[in-house]
Fold this protein.
Amino acid sequence: MNPAYANSRPSTTPVQTVTERHPRWYRGRIVRGMRIGFGGVSRRARGRALMLPAAAVALLVAGCGGGSKATAGEPTGTFTMKVVHASFPTKQSIARPTSFELAVENTGTHTVPSVAVTVDSFDYDSDYAELAAGRRPIWVVERGPGAIAKAPVESQEVSLPGGGQTAYVNTWALGALAPGKTRDFNWEVTPVKAGSYTVHYSVAAGLAGNAKARLASGAPVQGQFAVEIKSAPALNHVNPSTGRVETGAFPASP
């Protein structure tokens, strides 16, 4: 026998079991199958908690019917305006980016609530079977009118929409326009479908439909472009004499 244990005796002190130290460590409400949640909450507080979802729903319903801030309080009237510049190349080709530009002037004596332009010909309706959406692009809008917000982190810009984007998929607005002032609209687009198309645009003085834009003659402020998109880009070459890119095939060597 090891001498270290020669005089050892069994302890006579009673051992306290785990269940005696923690009488409820395994017999809580969850183990007994009782529901928890409102068990320790007073009846009044419980009633308030049950009323909270209904109040939240009421707030949501009220918010949905309140109208958009962009259209709230829009005055009713007619504002004299005109397009002082409009450009869109009539000859284009697939995958070649281009620009659609408009400059709108307030020629009246009252401030326009929100100058807006609607372009209804950047896409078309397709009846092809099993499409998720029937609206298909003729031009992909890479960047719409308006200043681009500064990205919060350094990252690559990919098809940023522009500050003039609205809830309407084909309408852009650039805010109030004082008398005698001009606002520029610019779309960076890429054609993706070959064919011949007519691009229509119209100018409005607001988004709610109350503020109308009219020429001095009383006619609507609108216009159109006849555009042909080719399936292949035009041939270009570098002129060795000038170093410039010129349209057409490279001339054959003499």
